[in-house]
Amino acid sequence: MEWHNVIDAASPELDKLAERYHLHPLHIEDCRQRLENAKIEDGENYIFTVVKCIELIDDSNFDAHDIDLFLGNDFLITVVEPDDKDTRQRIERLQAGNSNPRADQLYYRIIDATIDTYLPVLDHFSEIIDDIEDNAMDAATPRTLSKIFEIKRVLMGLRRILVHTRDVMAHLQRVDSPYIKRDMWPFLRDVYDHIARNLDQVETLRDLLSGCLDVYLSSVANRTNQVMKVLTVLSTIALPALVLSSIYGMNVKGLPGTDAPYGLVVVLGMMVACTLILLWVLRKFDWL
């Protein structure tokens, strides 16, 4: 069994391998153009597979790298991106521990190690959503809303990768490939189960994030209601004083007490009395 690991798809080494193993030109083109989704296709004497390796680049975003695999009866060709250091290290460890396994065994190990990179990323975003839930309750700020939509967009990207990767593994189970021996089928089913669980976790995180959005909107609405309640109470308390002052502020003759020496004191007393009565009524009905 021969294993060729190409670090850069633009390398002439890939062209030599394509000529040697009769690799389809469109598959070589796929290697040199980063695909948006995982895929699997049958070649003349091999199967061509693209899987995605994901890694965190900051607290709220991730990057996806292509890993291209050409699996034949007695050969395996892997093509990785030059800036994908994690995948290169995993492949170097597999090469160091290589005890001349079959090509389909190496194929499984590489895919399995790639799928294992998904779970830490999902756990990371699960912790972020926990923090968002707390902030949505305690501090419903525009920053919290921006964070919700940011993580929502990231989860959509993760879901797209997982769905297409699940389709790749489902294809391997449906088709009896001559390049994968029967004893590897249980291992590939296990990889499919891992992807399915990861996809379920993504759906759960999306539901939690939708719940965070509902909590945020409810918190904002409650805070707005509290502000409106305070403003309404203040306006109601000030209403008697405004009515009396507006009446006696008119330039109209004949108002009672306008010529009395203590008319101002009487009017002010009436304002205070009306305000106190109104406060008593509001307190009695638990409106204040």
Q: Would you mind describing this structure in some detail?
A:
This protein is an alpha+beta fold and 288 residues long. The protein has helices at residues 12-21, 25-32, 85-96, 103-115, 118-138, 142-174, 185-248, 263-284, and strands at residues 2-6, 39-42, 47-58, 61-71, 75-80. The chain has a five-stranded mixed sheet with strand order 1-5-4-3-2, with helices on both faces.
Short description:
With 288 residues, the chain is α+β, with helices and mostly antiparallel strands. The chain has helices spanning 12-21, 25-32, 85-96, 103-115, 118-138, 142-174, 185-248, 263-284, and strands at residues 2-6, 39-42, 47-58, 61-71, 75-80.
Fold topology:
Elements: E1 2-6, H1 12-21, H2 25-32, E2 39-42, E3 47-58, E4 61-71, E5 75-80, H3 85-96, H4 103-115, H5 118-138, H6 142-174, H7 185-248, H8 263-284
Parallel strand pairs: 1-5
Antiparallel strand pairs: 2-3, 3-4, 4-5
Shape: rod-shaped
How much helical structure, as a percent, in the residues? 55-70%
The strand order across the widest sheet is: 1-5-4-3-2
State the separation between the terminal residues, measured CA to CA.
83 Å
Q: Can you count the helices? A: 8
| Strand residues, percent | 5-15%
Overall mean pLDDT stands at 84
Number of strands: 5
| Gyration radius, rounded | 35 Å
Given as residue ranges, the uncertain stretches (5+ residues, pLDDT < 50) are: none
SSE pattern, N- to C-terminal = EHHEEEEHHHHHH
Structural class: alpha+beta
Biggest sheet architecture: 5 strands, mixed
